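Input record (one chain):
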Amino acid sequence: MSQIIIAGVDEAGRGPLAGAVMTAAVILKRPIVGVTDSKKLSPNKRKQLSLQIRQEALCFAFGRAEVQEIDALNIHHATLLAMKRAIECLSCTPELVLIDGLYIPTIDIPCKAIVKGDLLIGEISAASILAKVARDEEMELMDQLYPGYEFAIHKGYPTAKHRALLNELGPCPIHRRSYAPVLAAYALDRP
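The corresponding structure, as predicted from the sequence alone:
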């Protein structure tokens, strides 16, 4: 009996104040040892597993929603759009799509949301790792484009240091203007 083709999908970057939300869709040929929720792995282990997933997966693809889309749609709908984009970019069509979380994008393939799927389902864990590594690498590039915000350190997440720099420097083009701390930073008087 043949095995059904399952794609796992997860996101990185729902919570940050800056940068795109990134998603990945992955179809594995076989389980990969060590793959789990990306948040449970060190940055070095994530990078190592990301390379292994890219080499060993049947196929994988990325999706994203830009800051302007996040501000226009809200983060929930922008994330679902990015997930749909990742699934549509896969080079082979899955028979079932498993999504981490509570919600599924509107697609023409059977789809199921699984809470804590990034811990429970290897394909979702692999997607979690690919999305996190890709987004972290992009935020390291953004650190060079927008120096002073320390994006390479906090990756856009609302740490105390990031919020302080945001208030001191004002928002840059990759800050999400619909997020309250960014809106508040616009209102501050700066010399």
